[in-house]
Write a structure and sequence with these properties.
Order of helices and strands of chain A: HHHHHHHHHHHH
CATH topology of the largest domain in chain B: Rossmann fold
Strand order of the largest sheet of chain B: 6-7-8-3-9-10
Distance between the termini of chain B: 39 Å
Structural class of chain B: alpha/beta
Distance between the termini of chain A: 62 Å
Number of domains of chain B: 2
Structural class of chain A: mainly alpha
Number of strands of chain A: 0
CATH class of chain A: Mainly Alpha
Number of helices of chain B: 18
Strand content of chain A: under 5%
Helix content of chain B: 40-55%
Number of domains of chain A: 1
Largest sheet of chain B: 6 strands, mixed
Strand content of chain B: 15-25%
CATH architecture of chain A: Orthogonal Bundle
Number of helices of chain A: 12
Oligomer: heterodimer
Radius of gyration of chain A: 22 Å
CATH class of the largest domain in chain B: Alpha Beta
Shape of chain A: globular
Chain lengths: ~280, ~400
């Protein structure tokens, strides 16, 4: 059997450890600031979500679905939400939704401008692609630990970890959507003396909107798939219920929470897809 | 006639280092060598031309001849590698970003081969786009756009999306969008190539009608020589990035410069390009009403013809006298007025030759070309039209 020579071994792990430590020592204040900002934003979302009574949520879901899909789906989706309440998981669901919603908003705010930049610059694009690949394939526990060290336990590292997972699709699809705008359309815009900003706002973004909406849909799905992992670092919500069920080997409770996550995923996916389809123009 | 646009020594090379290739071109390397050895594409090479104000100037060539590259230089969608583009005496190649924007917003507009319409905007918002970019208020640009929509015949389609329209209608939107900013120069890059033949002919006619009213300076790209000669006041034929010949359709038809042009010209269906005014001749014998019959007979005898057109003192066509009638009337002492015939055919100077064929087969006399005031401009011998059938 052949072995890789022992003396060629490089220990980059050591440097990463040192880098994190250096960050903590020198920029601890900044991370605390970011942390406080995220917590404040999360609080606002939670307050807003808990402000709405449970029956109003059901009616809202029913009406929205009725408008963008149909009455049958509207009935099914509000029934799903009703069941979540019956399982005793309403509060957990709202907590989960708050984290997902905050992560998605942050992801969009960061991801869409970066996606526009990717479309504008081939160089930036070629540098960014491998990073996006890394963000999506790197096992999340690997960056959860440094995130814990930098932000402490709780919702903030959860939002952070979710964002790392959820930003790539919205970036990629914003880039794709803008790049797919026909060249002649861009030329036409320029031929009338549009500035680059006018071309972006009046032509490229509206043309890319259906694709960007698909990216947002993906982002939401990614965020939802992170809820269990998020709960491991102290975020409350449906993930925590699953986690507790596993720890107590409570199969039934685990399934209840799992089904709720599935319900949420189905409803959000179908709703955002149908809303996204409304941004398409006659082809 | 004032020169609106003057292109001097315009060269466009695509590739990593186009400037370096300029030298190679000057050393006499060919387009093919530069592509094979250096991986650069020479789009156009030392093109010079003048476009007069208010004319339709057609640049015609096969694909790869550089015609699209050339027209894209004229609003700097392509940056020329070398050369000047003088518009109203200013070199637009030297424009900075701000002046280029102003030039594109006010002076020049483009119609695209595949329309380049904004599919997320309604027809009216497509048409108003140039005005919107210019910063004109919504109410005013709607009003201006509506005017142009009326001109191109898009009434009633304002609230539709471009993809709900047929190809011909879509290009009307493209044309309206270009006209909406009231540009002095209209660049049309093969605007009708994507349309089927019937619609294409209709659009060509419409363009001529619109041009008769608006008198823009139009630079029109085409790969179809029939289209080029039908629309163009002057035509430039391009090959391999170089202008091979430039002139009016008549000049090119009469004197094709080389074999390449000759081959092109052979394809032409002359009857679709030549108009009555191009083939009419000055009659070598005419009589006036005040002249007597004797003069008429004398004129016919001298010209060796057996019928003659009669005009009044303002050259308005009054009728035709045949030799038989004239001799008979002379014996009966009748005045020329009494024996005027009206069985001949007349035509307007803009009539195309192919429409004259039918007339020529039916009449016995030459066809009289008259203007709106009935004044005789010339005559067309039947043989001129009918020989074209052989």
């Amino acid at each position: 059997m052949n072995y890789f020579p022992e003396n060629l071994r490089i220990n980059i792990g050591k440097y990463i450890d040192q880098a994190i430590e250096w960050l903590m020592q020198n920029f601890g204040g900044i991370f605390d600031g970011i942390s406080a900002g995220i917590i404040w934003f999360l609080r606002q979302i939670e307050i807003l979500m808990f402000f709405v009574p449970w029956w109003a949520v059901l009616i809202l879901i029913f009406l929205i679905t009725w408008r963008v899909i149909n009455a049958k789906a509207a009935l099914a989706y509000s029934l799903m939400f009703f069941l979540v309440g019956c399982f005793g998981l309403w509060e957990s669901m709202i907590l989960t939704l708050s984290i997902v919603l905050s992560s998605v908003i942050f992801s969009m705010v960061i991801g869409i401008p970066l996606g526009i930049l990717m479309a504008a610059s081939d160089r930036f694009n070629s540098y960014t692609r491998p990073i996006l690949d890394a963000m999506q394939t790197m096992p999340s526990f690997v960056y959860l630990i440094p995130a814990l060290l930098l932000f402490g336990m709780g919702k903030v590292p959860a939002v952070f970890a979710t964002m790392i997972y959820a930003i790539p699709p919205v970036m990629r699809l914003t880039d794709l959507g803008i790049r797919n705008v026909p060249k002649e359309m861009i030329e036409a815009a320029h031929s009338f003396g549009s500035s680059n900003l006018q071309t972006l706002i009046k032509i490229q973004l509206p043309q890319a909107l259906p694709t960007i909406m698909a990216g947002i849909n993906q982002t939401i799905m990614m965020a939802l798939s992170m809820v269990v992992i998020a709960s491991m670092i102290g975020a409350r919500g449906l993930g925590l219920d699953v986690l507790q069920a596993i720890q107590h080997i409570d199969i039934g409770k685990g399934f209840e929470a799992g089904i709720c996550i599935v319900f949420l995923a189905i409803i959000i996916d179908r709703l955002t897809q149908s809303i996204g389809a409304r941004f398409k123009y006659p082809k | 006639m004032t020169v609106k646009l003057n292109v001097e020594g315009l060269t466009k090379i695509f590739g990593r280092n186009p400037r370096a290739m300029l030298e190679k071109l000057e050393q006499g390397l060919t387009k093919d060598t530069i592509l094979k050895e250096f991986g650069h594409t020479v789009g156009i090479n030392q093109v010079s031309l003048e476009v007069n104000e208010g004319e339709i100037f057609v640049i015609m060539g096969l694909s790869g001849s550089g015609k699209s590259t050339l027209i894209r230089c004229l609003n700097l969608l392509n940056r020329p590698t070398a050369g000047k583009i003088m518009v109203d005496g200013e070199d637009i190649v030297k424009y900075d970003g701000k002046r280029l924007k102003a030039y594109r917003q006010h002076k020049v507009a483009m119609v695209f081969q595949h329309f380049g319409l904004f599919t997320h905007r309604k027809v009216i918002d497509n048409v108003a786009y140039g005005l919107e970019v210019r910063g004109i208020s919504p109410a005013e640009r709607r009003e201006l756009a509506q005017k142009v929509i009326d001109i191109v015949g898009l009434n009633g389609w304002e609230e539709m999306y471009p993809n709900e329209l047929s190809g011909g209608m879509q290009q009307r939107v493209g044309l309206a969008r270009a006209l909406a900013t009231d540009p002095e120069i209209l660049l049309m890059d093969e605007p009708f190539s994507a349309l089927d033949p019937l619609i294409r002919r209709e659009m060509q006619q419409e363009l001529l009608d619109i041009q008769a009213r608006l008198k823009k300076t139009i630079i029109f790209i085409s790969h179809d020589i029939n289209e080029a000669f039908k629309l163009g006041d002057r035509v430039a034929i391009m090959k391999d990035g170089v202008v091979e010949q430039m002139g009016t359709p008549d000049e090119i038809l009469a004197k094709p410069k080389n074999d390449y042009i000759k081959k092109f010209v052979q394809d032409i269906d002359r009857s679709k390009i030549l108009q009555a005014k191009n083939i009419m001749i000055r009659p070598n014998a005419l009589v006036s009403l005040k002249d007597g019959l004797k003069v008429a007979i004398k004129e016919m005898e001298q010209a060796g013809i057996s019928s003659i057109f009669v005009l009044d003192h303002e050259r308005r066509l009054q009728g035709l006298v045949t030799i038989d009638d004239a001799i008979k009337a002379l014996k009966e002492h009748k005045p020329i007025k009494d024996i005027l015939q009206h069985t001949y055919s007349t035509t307007a100077p803009e009539t195309y030759m192919n429409e004259l064929i039918q007339i020529a087969t039916e009449t016995k006399y030459p066809i009289a070309v008259i203007d709106n005031d009935q004044k005789l401009l010339g005559i067309i011998a039947r043989v001129t039209v009918l020989s074209n059938l052989v």
